[in-house]
Amino acid sequence: METRLGLACWSFLVGALLLFMLAYDGGTRNITIAFGRDVELKEASTDMQNLETDGHVLPKITQAGKEEHKKMKGKDHNHMDPELNVFFTPNDLKIGKKMPIYFAQKNTSASPKFLPREESDKIPFSSKHFPSLLKIFSFPKHSPQAKAMKYTLKHCEFPPMEGETKFCATSLESLLDSTRQIFGPNSEFSMLSTTHLTNSSVPLQNYTISQVKNISVPRVIGCHPLPYPYAVFYCHSQQSDTCLFVIMLEGEDGARVKAPAICHMDTSMWNKDHVAFDVLKVQPGTSPVCHFFPPDNLVWVPLSSAL
């Protein structure tokens, strides 16, 4: 899916863009707008309730805090989390290559929606206000929802790595404005996302690569949803050697998926406990690390890129 944004069409597309994944279910995508009025913030979302089982996709594919990596590293990889089947190396990018890949199948119609900026700006978004936030949303201190909120706030407060730009967006307006700041004030940009071209009920299966397209871009911004009472996205861009690809995949059950994937060519500065090194059996700086983007993630690239 591609969304093209330019200054001339800015106002028109702000409403239409809205997070495709919030209406994504079973391989189809609908654009919907829900600005808080139809969202009961005090209700626990499915994603927040299931934080312990499927809420850790973000630190699996990003440079999360050391404690998160240590927790995942300590797990028994003889029973590897199926969601870790998103990592690969550039050597795997060959037509006909078969590999197990996990593409989450979530009904995001029940997921939190973005608030308009005028509403989200009135709500503190900081760990120091955590006790007050629990009162605002009526979440018990030790509830799964409280743990999810704390996790998200802490993740947004992690300092960036050297050469990294990061932000957490709590509204659609802030997401677009911050993306534009990174690319430049007069920039135009496009959005990529993982798209199921056919319906499939199997999240983890063997896929065969049928097409690989290298997208030449000077910079990429990846945005990942975080569990919170309303929509929050963690976005980051690394000034280092990265290669972006759009890959066509054919599943064993006939599923067809078009997925963006990124290869980080220099991992020498990565946390040595990053779970990708365990999965790929490599060490920091010894091999590039690539990963597919989950279906509810966004990938922003300059419009000038040959998409």
In short:
This protein is 24% helix and 24% strand. The protein has helices at 10-17, 46-49, 51-54, 57-61, 66-73, 117-120, 130-137, 144-157, 172-183, 275-280, and strands spanning 4-5, 87-88, 98-102, 164-169, 189-192, 195-196, 204-215, 221-226, 232-238, 242-251, 256-264, 289-292, 298-302.
N-to-C CA distance? 11 Å
Low-confidence stretches: 2-57, 64-77
Category by helix and strand content: alpha+beta
Give the amount of beta strand, in percent.
15-25%
Give the fraction of residues assigned to helices.
Answer: 10-25%
Q: Strand-and-helix sequence, N→C?
A: EHHHHHEEHHHEHEEEEEEEHEE
Looking at the chains present, what oligomeric state does this protein adopt?
single chain
* Overall body shape: globular
H/I helix tally: 10
Query: Main sheet?
Result: 7 strands, antiparallel
Overall mean pLDDT: 78
Radius of gyration: 19 Å
Total strands: 13
Question: How does this model look, in words?
Answer:
This protein is an alpha+beta fold and 307 residues long. 24% of the residues lie in helices and 24% in strands. The strands form 2 sheets. Strands 2, 3, 6, 7, 10, 11 and 12 form a 7-stranded antiparallel sheet that branches. A 6-stranded antiparallel sheet has the order 1-5-13-8-9-4, sandwiched between helices. A hairpin with a 4-residue loop joins strand 10 and strand 11. The protein is globular. The termini are close together. The N terminus is likely disordered.
